[in-house]
Write a structure and sequence with these properties.
Two copies of one chain form a homodimer.
Chain A: E1 4-5, H1 17-22, E2 27-31, E3 34-39, H2 43-52, E4 55-58, E5 64-68, H3 72-79, E6 92-94, E7 97-98, E8 104-106, E9 109-114, E10 117-121, H4 127-137, E11 143-145, E12 149-155, H5 159-167, E13 179-184, E14 187-192, E15 201-207, H6 212-222, E16 229-231, H7 235-240, H8 276-285, E17 289-296, E18 308-312, E19 315-326, E20 331-339, E21 348-353, E22 356-363
Parallel strand pairs in A: 4-16
Antiparallel strand pairs in A: 2-3, 4-12, 5-10, 5-11, 6-9, 7-8, 9-10, 12-15, 13-14, 14-15, 17-20, 17-22, 18-19, 18-21, 19-20, 21-22
Chain lengths: ~375, ~375
């Protein structure tokens, strides 16, 4: 039996917590000092439902860092090696954020509203502190703060249908990683086509805690015949899709190159980024290790609660950081950080789980591609 | 029944996690992306044991931010209004850390090793990012990083006895919030007289993950006849003692004055602090609300999982953020943030718990004083 979670004010409730509880949440994790559901019926049942129906996810823990003012774009470009110069005002960019050593501090989605107003939709670290620290240190002309904005994700193959019913048919024309405003009950919310699954879907940036329950209720009322359910990022599905989890698969100890994000580190913008010199060296030398998708043989592996060592012919070769039994692929899907000498697709490695050694193979692509 | 916690690599293990599990931990919270035990036998049984015996606490989640280099002391003084100019190299100071608005970013303990080397032993926020951001923004001559240091707390009335048996009699002469080096198995560790209880005790800053289990085992071997047990910060005991919990009782929304830390904001050093102007205004006007110790009447209150509204004659008067039934005081002990008009000792207020309204009284001091 897993341990219990002691809930306190410090593990913040969300605008949707009452609805999540009423939907029968069984387990949480803690993400950005906030409750993030992990299980409703079971991880496997939730998985099958996500891949065939539509779910509503409380991902309020994807907190926003709002950067507002004349220096906003300049500051955002200091954070990341990704070139933002061609980004439109309705675009979202996945941006690795690095420090002066090139180590990743977060892997958020930047949501550009205008040149002087951005949201950074963050993974699990207090990126607000880094952005505020830089802004104060350089006396930049920006405000940096956490607004009352809580993303609600609509994910799954029927997400277009559900969204059309609540926000009108035109929402389906929204392109991937673009955002626009929608009206609801006299309020205007930013909606993006995005989300932490590969089943398709949207994220509604709900502004104002008081608007959380009405929008949740409207989605459930509209989607009853679609079998809409409360869900959450699903461990199995996200590994199948190759989606990385900051803190699990990569940390401050890793560069974007090691995280397989070299394509975001090209071009002139690198020079404006705090980590430009370190990343330049990494680009020339190549990373020493890199994120790989890994197929672990045999029966279902246990829960991966801490990194599992990987060896090649008995020598250390890296670690596995996420793993789960996949019913659809009939194998254990996994993500790990593998040393350069052993990262080629097809390499046969050993993964040392708490239940013993397993044979495993490096894959060229995520499982679902 | 409380919900389960889904454990993953992102919720970091500590050097002591195996021993904590073997000791029968039942529940955790998550603190600085790390597992922090909350219950062994039960919160009440753990409480009685803590107040009569001696416990060993895995408080690795009090991560260290190491600041090293010629500008170290200058940078630390930028973080806090507390005057550090008279601090000796063997002292620990409790320092509110504020941003430019005077809002609290953390309430760590600063451990001074020398003018150019400090540890900041942090509460639950990524203070590393703020300190790094300021250092980079100002191009200061310091390294800022998280070292492999995991505090282990020895708390309870028999803590002197246990520490003497493992580290020699002289350890008992260590004064409150002073630190010194002790030898263990050929290693040298910093030990401070400190800890998040008011039962007396020490914190051992264990350097090197590999040293965690040997030191844990030595303490348990030496303390068998003292009935030493694995423990953790205890909700009831810390409220009785008036110890504040960052994220529960105060947040970025609150100033040090509101958190009752006005005594740390005096003197010339305020000028060097990032938040000096904002704090100067707060000092002149006085805070609008302040931390209070609160006695809640009636039977045991439910678990305080989110702030409870406080009213005075039906008007909003603040909130309660921590509360628990105290067997020793035979009442519900609580901490809350109360508006200026109602914070005088003896004021009768209403606390609105999920189980209904309760009569309550503001106290002049924490329960154990």
């Amino acid at each position: 039996m897993p341990p219990f979670l002691s809930i306190s004010q410090r593990l913040r409730n969300t605008p949707f917590t009452h609805r999540v509880k009423a939907s029968g949440v069984k387990a949480y994790t803690v993400y950005n000092h906030m409750l993030l559901p992990t299980v409703f019926e079971s991880v496997e049942a939730d998985y099958h439902h996500l891949k065939s129906k539509v779910q509503v996810w409380d991902v309020s823990c994807q907190r926003q860092v709002e950067v507002k003012g004349p220096d906003a774009t300049k500051l955002i470009q200091m954070l990341t090696p990704r070139n933002l110069s061609k980004m439109a005002d309705d675009q979202c960019y996945y941006i690795p954020v690095v420090d002066e050593t090139g180590g990743m501090l977060n892997d958020p989605v930047a949501v550009k509203h205008s040149a002087d107003r951005w949201w950074i939709s963050i993974a699990d670290s207090d990126l607000l502190y880094w952005v505020k620290g830089l802004a104060r240190g350089r006396n930049m002309d920006v405000d940096v703060f956490e607004p009352d904005v809580s993303p609600l994700a609509i994910q799954g193959p029927h997400s277009n249908q559900l969204m059309e019913r609540v926000f009108g048919e035109e929402i389906s024309s929204l392109r991937f990683f673009r955002h626009r405003k929608v009206d609801f009950n006299g309020h205007s919310f930013t909606v993006a086509r995005s989300g932490f699954s590969t089943q398709g879907g949207f994220e509604i940036y709900v502004e104002g805690t008081e608007n959380g329950e009405p929008i949740w209720d409207a989605l459930f009322a509209a989607g009853q015949d679609l079998d809409v359910r409360a869900g959450c990022p699903n461990l199995i599905e996200r590994i199948e899709g190759g989606l990385l989890s900051y803190g699990n698969d990569m940390t401050r100890e890793h560069t974007p190159y090691e995280a397989g994000m070299g394509k975001f580190c090209k071009g002139a913008a690198v020079k404006d980024c705090i980590g430009s010199e370190a990343l330049q060296r990494e680009r020339e030398n190549g990373p020493k290790r890199q994120i790989c998708h890994i197929d672990i043989m045999g029966k279902a592996v246990p829960s991966c609660e801490a990194a599992w060592p990987v060896t090649f012919n008995g020598e250390p070769a890296g670690q596995v950081t996420s793993a789960a039994w996949s019913p659809d692929f009939d194998t254990n899907v996994a993500i790990g950080m593998i040393d350069r000498a052993h990262w080629d697709a097809g390499t046969e490695i050993s993964v040392h789980t708490p239940d013993g050694r397993r044979d495993a193979v490096i894959k060229a692509l995520p499982f679902n591609r």
